Structures are given as C-alpha cells and as structure tokens.
Q: What sequence folds into this?
C-alpha cells in the first residue's frame, strides 16, 4: 500500500479497486486521528505540549500555578514551571554577637548577593566593627568612606586605602556604647560567590553614643580576591559586642 511522506499514513494505490475505497478511507482516517492525538496530548485548559523522545508523539505539560515562570529543568531535558525567586530575600543565618568575634560558615553558593542587617547592637568600647571574608587577614582590601556626626568634628569623604578588613561601622570618634535602639547597619556584598572578579561591599550605618551624639557612615569596601566568599567573620576593633546579625541571600 502507498503511504504519506511525513507520517506514513496508509492510502490506496492507484491500481486499487473502487470497492476497496471505504476500507481505505477508514484506515486513513484512523491514522490521522491517532497522529493528531499524539501531537495534541493536552486535556486541560492552559496545558502546553512539547516533543517527547518518541518521534511524532508530544508530551503535555499541565498549567502551572499563579506567577510561576517557564524554564528548562536541571537536567536540561524538558520544560517545567518554577516559582519566581528573583529579587527576594532569603534568611541564611542569624548570628549572636556575644564575644570578641563571630563567624558565619554556612554560606550557600546559590545566591547572587549577600545582604547583612545589624540592628540594635552595642559595643563595650567605642570603636569600629569589621568583617573579613574567608578570614583573610592580608592587605587585600580597599575602603572609601564618608562620615558625619551631629556635633563636634564633622567628616567628609575619606579614602582609607589598603587595609586588612572592611569596616561595617566607622564610628571611632563617638562610640556606639549602650544606645542600641539607634544603632543600625545594613550592608550588601555583591557577587560574593563569583570567582573571576573582586567583591564590592556597600555599607550604610547610623549610630548614637550615650551623650546623644549621632553619626552616620557610608562605606564602599573592596575585597581584592577572585575566591568565592564561603565564610564571614565579624569582630569589633576592641572589647566585645552584643546584638544580632542577620545574613540574607539575594537573587
């Protein structure tokens, strides 16, 4: 019997008798029906069809849930629906500041940036608070800062040059002391898990001492390393600190 070029449907030969026409039409119709169904396996509204491993047979992908996006699965073998996570904050770890230093050693590699939040903290001695990625004590840092305080000496932009750490608070002149309800620091470490560029840290801090003198600091710090950041060590310049630090992953 003759067949069609693309799907191999059976059709009558030119020499077949007219009396065989009804059977030939039924055979052709059944083939068309089967192929059409294989190419359109969706049975619910909104479902999508994609090619399966079998020639001329598609697979149905059911409709996802609200606000999901279509992506390729982890094995790169088929499409799938996924919940959007871009731009969201995911809490990775909460650290208690109760000694001379504390280290986060559970940083995953699945985020683009790290967001650090330090609120209502105190320091036993008016000084700086610092952070070191991977506990790197070498002179692999560059820091630029702009400081301001409400009385006494006001400070403009200053370049701190190379250093062995990044300050999260630049308050050596007024001291944080016990006014914890006024002490707020937020910082972002960009591309922390990247292995082909330096890491940039942006810091904004506000603090007050027991005399009511307020200070604020804007900081940009660079860690000149191509290594991914796997740990962060926080410590005061002197004495001890108290409070909490929350570390979030950002996509």
A:
């Amino acid at each position: 019997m003759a067949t069609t070029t693309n799907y191999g449907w059976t059709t009558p030969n030119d020499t077949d008798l007219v009396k065989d026409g009804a059977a030939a039409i039924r055979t052709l119709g059944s083939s068309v029906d089967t192929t059409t169904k294989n190419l359109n396996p969706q049975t619910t509204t909104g479902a999508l069809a994609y090619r399966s491993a079998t020639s001329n047979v598609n697979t149905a992908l059911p409709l996802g849930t609200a606000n999901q996006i279509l992506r390729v699965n982890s094995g790169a073998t088929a499409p799938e629906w996924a919940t959007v996570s871009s731009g969201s904050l995911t809490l990775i770890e909460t650290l208690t500041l109760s000694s001379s230093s504390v280290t986060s050693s559970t940083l995953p590699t699945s985020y683009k940036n790290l967001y650090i939040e330090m609120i209502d903290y105190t320091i036993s001695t008016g000084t700086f608070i610092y952070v070191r990625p991977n506990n790197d004590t070498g002179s692999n840092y560059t820091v630029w800062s702009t400081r301001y305080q409400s009385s006494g000496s006001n400070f403009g932009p200053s370049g701190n040059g190379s250093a062995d750490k990044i300050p999260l608070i630049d308050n050596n002149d007024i001291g944080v002391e016990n006014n914890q309800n006024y002490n707020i620091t937020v910082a972002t470490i960009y591309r922390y898990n990247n292995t082909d560029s330096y890491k940039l840290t942006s810091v904004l801090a506000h603090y007050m001492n027991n005399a009511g003198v307020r200070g604020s600091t804007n900081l940009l710090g660079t860690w000149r390393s191509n290594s991914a950041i796997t740990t962060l060590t926080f410590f005061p310049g002197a004495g001890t600190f108290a409070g909490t630090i929350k570390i979030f992953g950002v996509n």
Remarks:
- The mean pLDDT is 82.
